[in-house]
Write a structure and sequence with these properties.
The complex is a heterotrimer of chains A (117), B (129) and C (232). Chain A has 117 residues and is an alpha+beta fold. Chain A has a 5-stranded antiparallel β-sheet with strand order 4-3-2-1-5. Chain A is elongated and about 50 Å long. The relative contact order of chain A is 0.24. With 129 residues, chain B is mainly α. Chain B is globular and about 45 Å long. Chain B has one domain. Chain C is of the alpha/beta class. Chain C folds into 2 domains: 30 residues; 156 residues, Nitrile hydratase alpha /Thiocyanate hydrolase gamma (Nitrile Hydratase, Chain A, Alpha-Beta Complex), CATH 3.90.330. Helices cover 38% and strands 10% of the residues of chain C. The chains are: A alpha+beta (117), B mainly alpha (129), C alpha/beta (232). Chains in contact: A-B, A-C, B-C. At the B-C interface, α1, α3, α4, α5 and α6 of B face α1, α2 and α8 of C. β4 of chain A pairs parallel with β3 of chain C, so a sheet runs across the interface.
Chain lengths: 117, 129, 232
Amino acid sequence: MSKSHHAEKATGIGDPQCFKGEAGPPKFKVGDKVRIKDLPDIFYTRCQMYTRGTPATVAEIVYESPAAEDEAWDNTEQVEWFYSLVFKQRDLWPEYPDAYTNDTVETELSERWLEPA
Amino acid sequence: MTELEKNDSDIQQDLPDLDTSPIPLLEKIRKEGRVWDDLCEQYGVDNPDPPWKVSLDSTCEVLAEDNCALSVLERRWEEDELSEDIYDDVPFPERQLLALAHSMIRRGLMDEDELASRMEAVNRRLNMV
Amino acid sequence: MAEKHKPAPMVDEVSEFEILELAVRELAIEKGLFSADDHRRWSEYMETVGPLPAARLVAKAWLDPEFKKLAVSDGVKASLEVGIDWINDMPSNFGTPSDYCNLRVLEDTPKLKHVVVCTLCSCYPRPILGQSPEWYRTPNYRRRIVRWPRQVLAEFGLQLPEDVEVRVEDSNQKSRFIVLPMRPEGTDGWTEEQLTEIVTRDCLIGVAMPHPDRKADDMRPVHPAVNPVKHP
């Protein structure tokens, strides 16, 4: 991301704080069940392969920001809500030991990656 | 790919093939350079990191800023690949440094010859008593 | 009589690696990839960071329930109270490009144990925790902790009951995380200083739990996994 563009907006305010208020209403709320979309592979993504197609629960609505996939190419016009999502390990890995039935993974994804489960 | 390999690659997405073929200058450094662990043992020093570590980390950081010559994600993924391939016998942080130089040369950010000359010049400067 | 101090041992030679680092940096600056000033500002900043502020944040949270609530709800604000300003201290004045400004403090409970990783590239909360340890950056840790957390934690000497939820936090975006572990038994009446001392870096990452007798992390030799994927 080019420094000059970003610096004006974020100096003294912080990133992602500088994008506050730009995303419009969040599509999902805490407790919602979602599934991770398997959007077409592009080189730069921060949506981990292991999450694709897996169900998750929205644990927290964390901040607004351009999606990492856009920000990498300096496209910061579209700002999305980011969510903290909790996945059950047994949904992620079929061979995950049954004994550890409560284990989870939590990670953040932007709204474009989510659809209602 | 076997089932096991396929599952492991789920952790990380498919990347364009990185050219991990060795670069002669860096191979020479890898084979002949003295790593910090060895220097510490010889001189009885116990600093966990070499004196150039902070500077290396700063270089990695600022390369991703400004014009973003080399983003963090790309640099780290290449470092991962190289660390498991041609630099797997090099300790950290020497491995990080070699991987950085490797990525920069392969990207055309600098070429091997000018790096070699610059190293000679730096060597003369630092070893002038 | 004053003891004559021997000078501290020093490495008295310049390695090829030292030369390489400097040569790369000089060429990069000459080619305009970055400026000498930016590099210097970064180096100066990196020298200042370390794990103590995070340890102190945990100790404060253990002693003050109101501060704990703040820490869990607003990590950036709570950081100010241990002297860390995620926004304004940074060379850029808007946060660091790799660390951003969204610290989330993960509170462990008797039924929930957090452990932090960045599977993509080893992101880490440097402003409050310092530079990451080598083992945290390795593919060995990053690939296995998200998939075989119990196994990897056992290698760190940590075993948890089956019904505890082990939650792996994969910091893939702009948030950075530290773990607020459970306060251990045997620390009643301790001061903030005493508590700070036992909150080691490994506890803040989540691969260790604080113990009244431990003030330092174990050395972690980094070795390649013998069987990287196959597990019982």
